[in-house]
Design goal:
43% of the residues lie in helices and 17% in strands. It has 229 residues and is α+β, with helices and mostly antiparallel strands. It has 2 domains: 160 residues, no CATH class; 54 residues, no CATH class. Strands 1-2-3-4-5-7-6 form a 7-stranded antiparallel sheet. Strand 1 and strand 2 form a beta hairpin.
Length: 229
């Protein structure tokens, strides 16, 4: 019998979710887990590529990729915020995200961010074991680092997005350096840490960016937020 995405989800639940639960994750859906603390929400998600994308990438409708993310509650505590913290933010909504990489060699899948599952699920146990390793060795250390708001602020102030291979991002931080989106997060983290000067500096760097030189709604919003700090 051919394998399907439910077979992958079942083994993830039995072999990977307990590792996440031991690390403090307490809420789970089919392929996603959440951990809630005072300042952040951590997310780990093993998304199914589906028949169309999976078929195009490696010829498997059961192929999956792993991503982890951090959602910063501070963005909802700024003077200009009007929305509540989401209960269970999807991974793609997180302001900081990290793509998990496989270690096993797979001839059918050259991409380091895609686990290929054979149509008969003959390699499923090996794939899930490697995914569990990626959680322990990549997701947990990165999440622990980003949960430290001081370290997270430093990253948003200075770190560009990283590539693990051309065209494949490894770490995705909200917006490019000195962009509106990056200033949004950096200023929120700085305010949460009680560092108003760093919060102002985030918007000042954005306003000095030549991309925002001319009059625009974003520039106006940035100037208004700078006045509110």
């Amino acid at each position: 019998m051919a394998a399907n995405s439910k077979d992958v989800a079942k083994v993830l639940k039995t072999d990977v979710f307990p590792i996440l639960r031991d690390a403090g994750f307490s809420r789970f859906k089919t392929r996603t887990a959440w951990r809630d603390d005072a300042d952040t929400i951590s997310v780990v998600d093993f998304r199914s590529l589906g028949s169309y994308l999976g078929g195009a990438v490696c010829g498997s409708s059961c192929a999956c990729g792993g991503v982890t993310g951090i959602y910063f509650k501070a963005v909802h505590a700024t003077p200009w915020s009007t929305e509540p913290v989401p209960d269970l933010p999807e991974e793609w909504r997180c302001q900081a995200r990290r793509v998990l990489r496989k270690r096993i060699f797979q001839l059918r899948s050259w991409r380091p961010d895609v686990w290929y599952v054979k149509p008969d699920a003959g390699n499923l146990a090996k794939v899930i074991a490697d995914a569990a390793r990626a959680v322990r060795e990549q997701a947990f250390p990165w999440l622990d680092d980003m949960r430290d708001l001081n370290r997270a602020l430093e990253a948003f102030e200075s770190r560009p997005e990283s590539e693990m291979r051309r065209g494949i991002l490894q770490e995705i931080l909200e917006g490019r350096l000195h962009s509106f989106a990056r200033a949004e997060v950096a200023s929120a983290l700085a305010l949460r840490l009680g560092q108003r000067d760093r919060a102002r500096a985030a918007w000042q760097r954005m306003l000095a960016n030549p991309y925002y030189k001319g009059p625009s709604p974003m520039r106006s919003q940035a100037e208004e937020r700078l006045r509110m700090i």
